[in-house]
Amino acid sequence: MDFGLTDEQQAIQEEVRRFAENEIKPVASEYDEAEEYPWEVMDKAAEAGLLGPGIPMEYGGAGYSPVEAAIIIEELFAADAGIGLSVSSAGFGAESIIAFGTDDQKERFLPPVAAGDAIMGSAISEPDVGSDVSSVSTRAEKDGDEYVINGNKMWITNGSVGDFFVVLCQTDPEASGRYNGFSQIVVESDRDGFQADKITGKLGIRASDTAELIFDDVRVPEENLIGTEGGGFLQLMQFFDETRTMVAAQGVGIARGAAERALEYAQEREQFGRPISDFQAIEHKLAEMHTQTEAARTITRKSAWSVENRDEQLTALASMAKEFASRIAVEVADEAVQIHGGAGYVNDFDVERFYRDAKITQIYEGTTEIQKNIIARELLE
């Protein structure tokens, strides 16, 4: 088994690390405090080819593999989770268009994202629907050659800055079977009846945009339907293994960023006439933090490899990676604050932000509890 990166992957890692050091780190606190979307950083990310990394080269993207995407996400999140999510989520929902969309849809929606001329999002969750995706009630009714959409979506990344969204809708409420009757439809944000209300006051990832979407008789042409009508739920389920793996990579990045900052601080901070890194209690904390981060990285990289190679244990492995890496992100960030002491409780140091950012990785793309359910189900089948 080869745990090393190829020369090309190492080059990608180094390039993204430089970008994160030069363009994200210096402004991370500023955007976090303002809860402001990092438009200037996004422009620079577009120039660096970091938007929509999985978009095929024929549509202007870099065509990176899942392993390479995980490497990129770790580097971005080790600098800052809020801006990291803004960059890595610019193409949310593109997977469905790539896999099931028409040639026209691919030409219309993918190149603008890769070029930084548009931002997209995936609209699934609703005010009363989180883990139970099959309870989505946003309705799309056919009227001639158009769909008329009504309903609400909640906690949507890029909600108030996005140009178009892949929206999971109920198109046939009478369909037999719990998972039938749902479709994915692209909805542009400039259509009449579409409204986005930004959500503020978030615990973390504050630079990333989150909003509630409201659809009030929004009309879209039937050519915006992705794939076949009624196949939306099954289309969506095919990508959760990949998206959960990428959240695991986010957790690895947060843990690494927190651990690196804790190590640096421990070597600089002195008590009783010597650096606190000389005390065994701190040494043990640092040792465990870095060991946990390395373990999380290993399972995440294996899951990313499995996404690329469609390994038979992928579903269980993706949930294992997501559950473990998100837990380690929270634990390592917690210890980083502890090592900083009182200084870690204020935003003079980055670990306060990492501590707040870490928690979301245990919630979105399937909660910790859902991941454990999936792992157990896969084991018992």
From TrEMBL:
The lineage of its organism: Archaea, Methanobacteriati, Methanobacteriota, Stenosarchaea group, Halobacteria. Residues 6-117 form the Acyl-CoA dehydrogenase/oxidase N-terminal domain. GO terms for molecular function: acyl-CoA dehydrogenase activity; flavin adenine dinucleotide binding. Residues 123-218 form the Acyl-CoA oxidase/dehydrogenase middle domain. Residues 230-380 form the Acyl-CoA dehydrogenase/oxidase C-terminal domain. Keywords: FAD, Flavoprotein, Oxidoreductase. This is Acyl-CoA dehydrogenase. Belongs to the acyl-CoA dehydrogenase family. Gene3D superfamilies: Acyl-CoA dehydrogenase/oxidase, N-terminal domain, Butyryl-CoA Dehydrogenase, subunit A, domain 2, Butyryl-CoA Dehydrogenase, subunit A, domain 3. Its cofactor is FAD.
